[in-house]
Amino acid sequence: RQVYFAAKAVKLLRQxxxxxxxxxxxxxxxxxxxxxxxxxxxxxxxxxxAIEYEIVEAADVKPKLMAVIEERKARPFRLTYRxxxxxxxxxxxxxxxxxxxxxxxxxxxxxxxxxxVKTSIEGPEKSSHEPACDTYPYIVIKMVYTxxxxxxxx
Length: 154
Known about the structure:
Layout: H1 2-35, E1 47-50, E2 54-55, H2 63-72, E3 76-83, E4 86-93, E5 96-98, E6 102-111, E7 114-122, E8 132-135, E9 138-144, E10 150-152
Parallel strand pairs: 7-10
Antiparallel strand pairs: 1-6, 2-9, 3-4, 4-9, 5-8, 6-7
């Protein structure tokens, strides 16, 4: 009877060692995959030149671009659209509780990493009596397509 228990214990020990080896092997293979992450490029952005642009009125926005803006307007968005030689950058600030918001283009320039677009939003003045209704402020910027990607300020 003792021989039976000893044989059973040896068999269990072998199974346990096998499981430990399997988990160890899996850890060696998969742990590096989980510990690595996306690393942001630490290259410093250098401004090369200012880009000429124009602000597109809502009535003049291309229908395909306007459809995407309408679809996404309730939440903040940043998107690009190319139509032939024209390149568009659109920035939306999501749902706002009143009218009277103004979006300012702070900068549009070419850098060593592409075209950089920076915008900001200003709320209605405290003294203004804007009606309480949801609005969806956005801006569309048109520029000439140069082949460079557009990057928005984070």
